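INFO batch 0412 | record 1 of 1 | parsing
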Amino acid sequence: MSDSPNTPKASNTSNTSNTPHAATTAHTADSSERVFPALAPATGRGFARSWWGLAWLKALEDTALDGAQLKKGRKRAREGAVGAVSVRPGRITAVVRDPDGTAHRSDVLLRELTGDEWDRFLDMAADRAGHVAALLDREMPPHLVEDAASAGVELLPGIGDLEPECGCEAWDHCPHSAALCYQVARLLDEDPYVLLLMRGRSERRLVDELQVRSAVRAAPPTAGDSDGEDGNDSADAGELAGVLASEAFAAAEILPPLPAPPVPPQAIGQPPAFDTETAPPGGIDADALRLLAADAAARALRLLTEALSPGHEQQPLEDELTPGQDGVRLAAGADGGPLAARIATGTGRRPADLDLAVRAWRHGGAASLAVLEEDLAPDPEALARAKAALDTAWDGGDRPRTRAVAPGRWSVVGTPVQLRCGTDGRWWPYRQEQGRWAPVGPAHHDPAAALADGLGEC
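INFO prediction complete | emitting tokens
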């Protein structure tokens, strides 16, 4: 058995692998690792749907020595016995459970491509515009396998390429390693780049290297590249290739229109998988990492949705949050617990103060938080408008008696309700709870509506 890999707690983390493979294995500097959460049991007749998933299964079934073990492994994978799958250069790992619940760690080693093989593969791809466009668009056309083979690079596993290692100590593919291989076919359905990662290159590194090679091929020749003895045989060697800006703008009407902007997803994707056997390294809080990952994904989706909405370019830029404001925003998504206590300490608030701040944030973000925590002092003109709004908000004798307790704050006599006016002229309802004023609703332009929210909470 090989040593247990240092399995990370989130996708696309970095981890250095020193596990020796076969004698021809290339130890590259790229040791990215991805962890995929356990998949639900498979239904239907076919185990894989995509060309890449089916090609992987064909390679597996054509090279395995014991078809009976593959059949058992396929059954266990279909039943959902395979846990989270860790994929890194040269190795895939998962915990596979027997029908009686016994868990076995299973690894399958796949020979990494050598540096020379990767150079040939990238040169082949860079020489074909279709491959460049597809790979940069996160697509892998099936004929990439044939073109890579013509360059002497085998992407799919061949005989002897898949080397199993399992806790059950079987010498060849057992039901556990076979189940893992079948699960990888389902991963390839969703992301064929998993195969390239097993062969030794992460998607990010592959794309970066491909872009460099494509840029070199697209660059115009310089004077020094001339075949002439003095380097000046190329026409107008000192001039740069290109098109005048005036000509480019003049051709705008005859150029095809730009494609429609993409449609944003309806929801954020699946969170990182944390259900691995290895504990996180010292100093890493898995719960905090999960919260930050989910928060980043939600903010990215919101920004993308807003950016694609009509008239977005006319909207003012959002003010950057202070660390204290951002801490409250994070706490609003933490739903209490130990993380909320840590955020309270980090933002210099007591837990009870953070609870009030979170309530304010949920009612109106940074503006609502400022009304709660800051001594807002409206200028005299704004204060006069606020008082006038109070005087005219109710008809006849229905107007409640108010008492000014601070600039922009009026307590409603005879009730535990307070009205606060923000610097933008909007009114916020507050209610006294255990001797403290707490926000109880969103802002209103009408103080009567804000009072109704406050009284409704009584």
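INFO post-check: Residues 1-30, 228-239 have pLDDT under 50 and may be disordered.
INFO record closed
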